[in-house]
Amino acid sequence: MDVCGEIKLGEKPHSSTMSSPWPALLLGVACVAGGTAGYVRTNSKPSLIAGLSVGILYLWAGAALRNGNTKGITGAMGASAILFLSSIPRVAKGPVPAMLTILSAASGYYYYPAFKALQS
Q: Across-strand partners of 6?
């Protein structure tokens, strides 16, 4: 692995540091779609900005993981933390914030072992 966290040609990623990109990619699409829907439905600029920001971070992380770049794990953990921390205060306000809280916690739980392995 080189200093940028990318897997060199012919090198296999260490199983404890590579995770599937699919949770990050799916959450990225969901965040972008949700932020856009929130803006269209209620003209909420914060929903649009937050959805696009976190969604793009998740999509970048998923793309990085698909390309063998371990920095995608850090990106997925960061996006999960941002989404979790921003959703938890609104968890009782309805099903959407509750689902965002659950999905971000699940994503963090999924990517944490690989993130921890990268830190050591």
A: 69
